């Protein structure tokens, strides 16, 4: 049996027509066909199974690669989650680099587990079809620019702490597991720590790449590795700051330009539009230190509250961000200022809810996605289930993780993501701007290094629902990069697709095209000594001020402790019975301890 004898079913749930594997579009609905390549984690398949169909759906390409032929059908999941797969679930916020568990196949020799990655381009898929997985970092290192080499190391340093917390940092010092897709590090699979894994082990691995590094960064990389091995860099945060300094210096040699286009529509069945957006007044900016900004909000709440909330968020956020952009600082503080601005906007909406005595589903709120370009980086911030996708010539990556019940159940380690999607109320929001105090809000900000031409798509769920972006990105968005297609035309086309193929909601699409100039990179001169001598900006906003405490006797301290405990217990009891949100949170915590798969739907209204 070969590929020509295999049928690939349409991924649209309302179609699922069987098509020859060699076709690009569905013969029934004309939608692009999705080829989802999955990695067999752990033991490889028997070579006798190559070119065979497993479980009547998985076509075996190689001993470690299969193709899903029925993408609209949920995969199988055993009742119990193996302990060694838990890290994949708990590290789901790092989906850009870490694969998700897709499902399992029950074979005679046991259960086979499959991993899924983000959406690969046809060029990458052509290599996968030949049984070639993404290339190892070590195999392509020599051909990369100095900027990309430091960028790869920066991504690894940012993954160190979360992987160490799940005891899988061994992955980052195992060369064959470090794969790349263009500028992005993608881990083949996760390996548990066999012994203690230290930063000096990272330095030893990186030092083997110094000789093949670009000449303009060799001395810098030598110093990085030396300080890692000698223990002078004691934390991954310090390593990240050092790499940031180097990347900032070398990135100055190339300029960046941006084009932004945004289109919104109420949709075919909604009477009014609760979405709101903002983009810079000028659709195109350029220069070494130019900034670009795009924001999309999807309002939620009754009595047109969602429309009010989304506009409030846009109006206040754009004002707050002006100060941030004018006073740029180090990445950590810059990120904090962005999230602080989001929290302030949240409290503005929350205060209006309280003044109007809105309760439960009457409270207005809004989701938020924002892309803020700053020098060589893109800062992505989100709250809710509106999304940001990052499109390059190699693939389409969903950068944000939805703030919904399905994602939370996965992050807590209770359910595999595709299993959680099948649960009742899987798409119910767990947070949105304005629904409660900012003390309970957790905005998420990621920063991405922009060192190749790319496009960012910000959208409300009117577009992203039902896998529409995953299905059409290569046909509709990739031509912006490959054929210089106009971003305004593409944005209008995406809204039209959303109205035709989804059509159940308002839809807003914002496209930000990033273009990088070609210029010779300068030699990197920053040193470890210089970096450690750099005084960071005061971050008193991050750390509560420590006040001198008067000396107290042991007896007085014990009495104070007892008093605090009594007040704490009383406060919790009072809050439990008189504040539904607290009671709901405590009940959810108790359910989590029992590891039940889902809880009752959130009180948040659907967007």
Automatic annotation (TrEMBL):
Protein keywords: Membrane, Transmembrane, Transmembrane helix
Name recorded for this polypeptide: Serine/threonine protein phosphatase
One Pfam entry name: PP2C_2
Domain of life: Bacteria
Residues of the PPM-type phosphatase domain: 257-514
InterPro entries referenced in this protein's UniProt entry, alphabetically: PPM-type-like_dom_sf (IPR036457), PPM-type_phosphatase-like_dom (IPR001932)
PROSITE patterns: PPM_2
Transmembrane regions listed in the UniProt entry: 558-579
């Amino acid at each position: 049996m070969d590929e020509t004898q295999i049928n690939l079913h349409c991924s649209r749930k309302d179609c699922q027509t069987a098509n020859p594997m060699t076709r690009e579009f569905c013969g029934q609905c004309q939608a692009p066909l999705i080829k989802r390549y999955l990695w067999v984690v752990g033991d490889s398949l028997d070579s006798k199974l190559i070119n065979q169909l497993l479980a009547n759906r998985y076509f075996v390409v190689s001993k470690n690669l299969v193709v899903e032929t029925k993408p609209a059908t949920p995969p199988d999941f055993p009742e119990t989650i193996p302990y060694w797969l838990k890290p994949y679930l708990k590290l789901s916020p790092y989906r850009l680099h870490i694969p998700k568990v897709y499902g399992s196949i029950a074979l005679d020799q046991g259960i086979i587990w499959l991993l899924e990655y983000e959406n690969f381009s046809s060029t990458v898929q052509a290599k996968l079809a030949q049984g070639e997985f993404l290339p190892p970092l070590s195999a392509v290192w020599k051909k990369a620019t100095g900027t990309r080499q430091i960028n790869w190391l920066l991504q690894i340093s940012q993954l160190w702490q979360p992987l160490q917390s799940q005891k899988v940092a061994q992955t980052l010092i195992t060369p064959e597991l470090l794969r790349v897709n263009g500028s992005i590090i993608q881990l083949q699979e996760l390996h548990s720590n066999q012994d203690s894994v230290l930063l000096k082990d990272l330095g030893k691995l990186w030092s083997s790449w110094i000789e093949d590094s670009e000449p303009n960064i060799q001395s810098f990389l030598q110093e990085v590795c030396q300080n890692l091995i000698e223990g002078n860099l004691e934390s991954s945060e310090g390593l990240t700051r050092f790499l940031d300094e180097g990347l900032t210096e070398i990135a100055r040699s190339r300029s960046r330009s941006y084009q932004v286009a945004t289109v919104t529509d109420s949709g075919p069945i909604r009477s009014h539009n609760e979405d709101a957006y903002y983009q810079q007044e000028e659709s195109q900016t350029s220069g070494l230190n130019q900034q670009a900004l795009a924001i999309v909000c999807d309002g939620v709440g009754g009595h047109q509250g969602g429309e009010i909330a989304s506009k409030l968020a846009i109006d206040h956020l754009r004002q707050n961000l002006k100060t941030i952009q004018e006073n740029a600082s180090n990445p950590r503080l810059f990120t904090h200022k962005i999230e602080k601005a989001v929290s302030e906007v949240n409290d503005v909406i929350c205060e209006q809810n309280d003044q109007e005595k809105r309760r439960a589903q009457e409270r207005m709120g809004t989701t938020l996605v924002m892309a803020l370009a700053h020098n060589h980086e893109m800062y992505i911030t989100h709250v809710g289930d509106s999304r940001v996708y990052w499109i390059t010539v190699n693939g389409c990556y969903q950068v944000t993780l939805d703030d919904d019940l399905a994602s939370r159940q996965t992050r807590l380690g209770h359910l595999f993501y595709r299993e959680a999607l099948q649960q009742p109320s899987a798409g119910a929001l767990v947070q949105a701007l304005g629904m409660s105090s900012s003390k309970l809000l957790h905005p998420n900000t990621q920063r991405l290094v922009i060192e190749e031409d790319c496009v960012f798509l910000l959208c409300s769920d009117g577009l992203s629902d039902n896998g529409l972006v995953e299905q059409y990105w290569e046909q509709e968005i990739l031509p912006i990069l490959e054929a210089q297609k106009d971003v305004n035309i593409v944005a209008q086309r995406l809204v039209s697709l959303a109205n035709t193929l989804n059509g159940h909601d308002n839809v807003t699409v914002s496209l930000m095209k990033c273009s990088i100039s070609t210029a010779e990179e300068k030699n990197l001169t920053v040193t470890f000594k210089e970096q450690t001598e750099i005084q960071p900006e005061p971050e008193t906003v991050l750390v509560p001020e420590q006040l001198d405490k008067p000396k107290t006797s042991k007896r007085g301290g014990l009495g104070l402790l007892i008093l605090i405990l009594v007040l704490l217990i009383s406060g919790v009891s009072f809050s439990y019975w008189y504040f539904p949100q607290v009671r709901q949170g405590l009940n959810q915590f108790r359910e989590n301890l029992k590891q039940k798969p889902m809880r009752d739907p959130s009180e948040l209204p659907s967007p």
